[in-house]
Amino acid sequence: MAREIVTLRDIQKFTENTEASKTREDQAYLSGKDGYFDRLFKYIPAELVAGYIFVLGVINQLTDTAKVKFLHWALFIVFCILTPLYLRRLQKVRKIQQHLISVVSFIVWCFALGGPFALYGWYNPVYGEVLLPVFTLIVAIWEAE
Fold it and tell me: Which of 96, 94, 90 shows the shortest CA–CA distance to 47?
């Protein structure tokens, strides 16, 4: 399954283009418009969230508080930058809206996991526990163009 969201407009553009080459990547447009659950899975950068969780576990073994805080934020920023790069270069996602939604999705996941936010007194895990399912259910309603 291709990672880029397929909308009705994409299918119309593809069928109108008489010179479209029928490559393997183009076959996704022939399979039909993505439904709610397809969009839900395509918007969440699961590979990056998994990588973030792994590296976060390694960082949490450090004892120096200043280093932990710095590395938490550095890791968070690096993975926020990696999200659109990964989607563009490896998953061949061209839609800017999908890149933005995926970055926001990554941020929401990090917030729910605690990440660098958990290092501050104002953070309460309940915020992330409420935000994550609400965001996840609502964001898939949007069709990235």
Answer: 90
Note the pLDDT of residue 85.
96
32 alpha-carbon distance from chain centroid: 22
User: pLDDT tens digits for 7-29?
Assistant: 888 777 777 775 555 555 555 55
Nearest Cα to 102, choosing from 52, 142, 36, 42? Answer: 42
* Residue 5 in domain: no
User: What is the number of domains present in the chain?
Assistant: 1
Q: Provide the whole-model pTM.
A: 0.84
Distance CA 54, CA 61 (A): 12
**Is position 97 within any domain?**
yes
Q: Give CA separation, 118 vs 44, 49, 53, 96, 113, in Å.
A: 21, 17, 14, 30, 8
Range of the domain at 50: 35-139
